[in-house]
Design brief:
Layout (H helix, E strand, L loop, with lengths): L2 H45 L14 E4 L6 E5 L3 E2 L9 H11 L11 H12 L10 H9 L7 H17 L2 H11 L6 E2 L1 H9 L9 H11 L12 H20 L5 H8 L18 H14 L4 H6 L3 E4 L3 H13 L8 E9 L4 E6 L23 H10 L7 E3 L4 E3 L2 E3 L5 E2 L2 E3 H6 L3 H10 L4 H12 L3 H4 L19 H12 L3 E2 L5 E5 L5 E4 L6 E2 L3 H17 L13 E9 L2 H6 L11 E10 L4 E8 L21 H13 L13 H5 L12 E2 L60
Parallel strand pairs: 1-5, 3-4
Antiparallel strand pairs: 1-2, 5-14, 6-7, 6-19, 8-12, 9-10, 11-20, 13-16, 14-15, 17-18, 18-19
């Protein structure tokens, strides 16, 4: 081989030599790293001390305050716990918890390597840290550390769990865990949990299915809330319950036959009544505050045992006044009559007071947050949509009844005729046909624009419309659903010059150390409507009070805007009775009756309903022929607002654009006395007088004898020979 070829062969050997040297250095560094990591672990392990147990754990109660942050509203469970020795906890109860949470509990070193990898992966990816994956880790977090989700706290948890597992008997750890872990329902520990779910505080008397169920919910009481009837939640509970039973069978605690038997159904739940802290109307406030804390991201452990200091938006004095009005200013007949009330401060989104019922412990159905058809209370959203669409309050529309829209006949309350009317007059007198004409004939995509305006004002999107948005009756809300809380906040948007702020009940949340964990300052407001649009809506709704369907509100003796609303249909008992009756009449009952009125300082909504489910006829409760919103709902509203604004200086609404009022064209319609055309076959005994009057009366007769009117349906009727549409709405509600 030539000299040149030998020289050419040397570089590969040099490259191989250097590669081996690099690999050697890397291997050395790797082993040094391992030795360093092991040394660091043992040094940290040796220097880690098991801290004293959290002495305040048993008394870490979450306190809830009224908005003044001085008056207590209530508290969320003072950690309901009854400590029991492990000897008093039968093996099948112990095994149920082990099968659910840590099947290698008796053999693992107190930590889970797979759990550590998962936690490290989440840390590296900036995700939320995983909770303790072993029973020992969970116990350490509860008894020795805080609920913080930080890297340092997680490392502490791992080292303390490892040391505790070596220094303390496993039985002692299990006993501590069973007496401290949270099971939901305010129950800490297995004894309190048995009492809360099965009225059985003695663990020795818990059956295998009961033990398996408790082990199921302790994993996450929120995700496995048995009261949540969502099918996904129910499936989640059943799947977890089967998982626990399968683990117990694998551990030899139960046989395969027993597993099959117990898996057929969940054990019967017999919860204890909630304690007196929820008694009375304030129970609804606490329940609503708790629900909002959950939505804000606080978990059940933090709420029920995290020692939080919660300041709500509820005003103590306003709440007392609302309760008084809701319980005192009522019709004489009150059996199964329900009132829902709410008041919101415009421009803030703060729910200042709410009346959901007389006693939360007797019925958890909150009439202030339960959805109902708003009827004509929905018309202000149509008004706002029309103004945004370029319409004027002096544009005229059909006021006579009926009007045909999309082939459907729609009418006014009591079949009244008004002639051609302006939008101002139509709102003032709550004339249905004019709004049908406006929304369905004079506006492109009118129903959709009404829905958009309602949502912009504050009616939650999920509640705004359950049916077809192009339904011609949308303007009267037959498929729309809202609660007094929703309506109070939506009208507050108009009162605030079109400014929308999300409705909320929590002002601030602080931790046990006083650190602010959440504040309402995080909420973002938005201009839902241009100020000139909102000001014009306020102007028109003030006309409702001055000479329309809400004249009773003038007694407040200050600027007031508002709107009445009723929704009719067939009462629940009549629907059941007439289920097989093809010729039965519909629309003879008033099912909801509203008055939502506001000043620049307060927006308050009142809703009346009747019957166990709120689907019974309201009319028998009124001395008038029908339970109009301008009667008892307005009276109850007035009783509250008079006290609520006592001592508060009167304030004016911002004036709308003067040019839009003063320089608008003279209305082309000729004001006329509305006429009532009774059905030709059965004229009502008390026919209204034909004597002209400026304002139609809510009662078609001055005779003291109460006669329920025969109503011409204000919901669609099908013309002769026309096919029945599948989406024909029932009674959507009507004007006054």
């Amino acid at each position: 081989m030539s000299e040149a070829r030998r020289k050419a062969a040397k570089p590969p050997r040099l490259k191989k030599h250097w590669a081996l040297r690099v690999l050697g250095w890397l291997a050395a560094l790797f082993f040094v790293g391992i030795i360093g990591a092991v040394a660091t672990f043992f040094i940290v392990y040796q220097t880690t001390k098991i801290p004293d147990p959290n002495k305040e754990f048993a008394t870490n109660t979450t306190t809830v305050m009224y908005s003044d942050n001085k008056t207590p509203l209530g508290s969320f469970y003072e950690q309901n716990r009854h400590t029991v020795p492990l000897a008093d906890v039968p093996k099948h109860v112990q095994d149920a918890v082990i099968a659910a949470e840590d099947r290698t509990f008796w053999t693992n070193p107190g930590i889970s390597p797979s759990g550590m990898v998962r936690a490290a992966w989440n840390i590296a990816n900036g995700e939320q840290l995983q909770g303790g994956s072993t029973i020992t880790q969970q116990y350490v977090k509860i008894m020795y550390l805080t609920q913080e989700r930080t890297v340092s706290r997680k490392l502490q948890e791992l080292f303390i769990a490892t040391k505790l597992s070596r220094q303390q008997d496993k039985s002692k750890t299990l006993e501590g865990y069973l007496n401290t872990i949270y099971f939901g329902e305010g129950a800490y520990g297995i004894s309190a949990a048995g009492d809360a779910y099965f009225k059985q505080p003695d663990p020795e008397k818990l059956s295998v299915p009961q033990a398996a169920f408790l082990a199921t919910v302790l994993n996450n009481p929120t995700l496995f809330d048995i009261d949540d009837k969502d099918p996904r939640t129910q499936k989640r509970i059943i799947d977890r319950y089967h998982y626990v039973l399968d683990g117990m069978q694998q551990m030899g605690t139960i046989t395969a036959a027993q597993e099959t038997k117990y898996a057929n159904r969940l054990p019967a739940i017999t919860k204890k009544d909630k304690n007196s802290r929820y008694q009375g109307p304030k129970g609804f406030l606490l329940d609503m505050a708790r629900s909002e804390l959950l939505r804000l991201g606080f978990d059940q452990d933090q709420i029920s045992g995290g020692g939080l200091k919660v300041t709500t938006t509820f005003n103590y004095n306003q709440q007392k006044k609302m309760v008084k009005a809701a319980q005192d200013e009522l019709p004489e007949k009150r059996d199964k009559l329900h009132v829902g009330m709410a008041t919101v401060q415009p421009g803030t989104g703060q729910l200042l007071a709410m009346y959901g019922g007389p006693d939360f412990l007797k019925s958890q159905l909150n009439w202030a947050t339960t959805r109902a058809r708003p009827g004509s209370s929905f018309k202000p959203f149509a008004l706002a949509a029309a103004l945004e669409d370029g319409k004027s309050i002096y544009d005229t529309y059909q006021g006579d009844s009926p009007i045909v829209v999309q082939g459907l006949k729609l009418g006014n309350e009591l079949n009244r005729d008004y002639g051609e009317v302006s939008l101002l007059k139509a709102t003032e007198q709550s004339i249905n046909t004019a709004f049908y004409d406006l929304v369905d004939n004079q506006m492109d995509q009118g129903p959709e624009k009404v829905v958009a305006a309602a949502e912009a004002a504050g009616i939650p999107a999920s509640k705004t419309l359950e049916g077809d948005k192009s339904n011609p009756s949308t303007v009267l809300g037959p498929d729309a659903y809202a609660s007094p809380v929703d309506m109070a906040n939506a009208y507050a948007t108009f009162a605030a010059g079109g400014k929308y702020v999300p409705l909320h009940t929590i002002k601030e949340v602080r931790g046990p150390d006083g650190k602010v964990l959440w504040s309402e300052t995080k909420l973002k407001s938005k201009q839902a409507f241009p100020p000139e649009i909102a000001n014009m809506v306020n102007y028109v709704l003030q006309d409702v009070v001055k000479k329309g369907t809400g004249t009773g509100a003038k007694e407040l003796d200050r600027p007031v805007a508002g709107k009445t609303g009723t929704a009719g249909g067939v009462a629940l008992e009549d629907r059941k009775k007439n289920a097989e009756c093809d010729g039965c009449k519909e629309g003879t009952a008033t099912l909801t009756s509203w008055w939502t009125g506001y000043t620049p300082q307060l927006s308050t909504s009142v809703l009346y309903r009747a019957g166990n489910s709120g689907e019974s006829d309201l009319d028998p409760y009124s001395d008038d022929p029908a339970f109009f919103g301008g009667n008892w709902p307005l009276k109850t509203w007035l009783a509250y607002m008079t006290d609520a604004l006592d001592g508060v200086e009167s304030a004016d609404f911002a004036e709308p654009d003067e040019d839009a009022i003063k320089d608008s064209p003279t209305p082309t319609f000729t004001p006329q006395t509305p006429t009532i055309t009774p059905p030709t076959n059965t004229p009502p005994p008390n026919t209204p007088s034909n004597t002209p009057s400026n304002t139609p009366s809510n009662t078609p007769s001055s005779t003291p004898t109460k006669t329920k009117p025969t109503r011409t349906p204000i919901w669609p009727t099908i013309p002769t020979g026309q096919p029945q549409p599948t989406n024909t709405p029932k009674n959507p509600g009507g004007g006054q």
